Amino acid sequence: MASLVEELVTILNEEEKVYQELLTLANNKVLVLVQADVAGLEDITSKEQQASDTLISYSNKQVQLLKDIANVLGKSTEGMTVTKLIALLDTQPEMQESLTIARNHLVETAGKVNQLNEQNTMLIEQAIELNDFDLTLFKSLRQAPETANYDAHANNTGSLLGNSGFDAKQ
């Protein structure tokens, strides 16, 4: 049982390292978004995907370890969490403390990553709004005024201005 808990602590610490990497990437993403560096954003997104794949692997190991520990303790494998395990380890304070520290570090780092991701989401939404505004502005520069553009049948004759370089007749 002690080896299973130690392995769980190791997995939690490894997950925390991956979240630290994601935290660094999220900080870098802020700068990349502000600079509108699309290539840099693609690179960061690729690295984030790799980190996410690693986290899924660690999460699967964590779930399996929690099931194994629950079986050893004679508890239900359904709903076994690290927090519940910490409560069950009240007779073994050393294991309980190391597991608590690992869990707290993981939760803290994951919270920081989540906060930065929310900030980056807002930056992306603002960039999209700015691009939409720019596109609307560019379209409106080429639109003809809505007045006096009628033909003999009272139909609008055109919505775009000519693209000639000269307006003056010679």
Describe the biggest sheet?
none
Derived structural class = mainly alpha
Q: Supply the CATH architecture.
A: Up-down Bundle
Number of helical segments with 4 or more residues? 4
**Percent of residues in β-strands:** under 5%
Dominant shape: elongated
| Share of helix, binned | over 70%
Number of domains: 1
Q: Indicate the radius of gyration in whole angstroms.
A: 29 Å
Number of strands: 0
Describe the overall structure:
The protein has 170 residues and is mainly α. The protein has one domain (2-129): Methane Monooxygenase Hydroxylase, Chain G, domain 1 (Up-down Bundle), CATH 1.20.58. It contains four helices and no strands. The chain has helices spanning 2-35, 38-73, 82-88, 93-142. Helix 1 (2-35) packs antiparallel against helix 2 (38-73). The N and C termini lie far apart (95 Å). The mean pLDDT is 86.
Defining key terms:
4 helices; elongated; 0% strand; 170 residues; Methane Monooxygenase Hydroxylase, Chain G, domain 1; mainly alpha
SSE diagram, text form:
Elements: H1 2-35, H2 38-73, H3 82-88, H4 93-142
Give a quick summary of the entry:
With 170 residues, this protein is mainly α. Helices cover 75% and strands 0% of the residues.
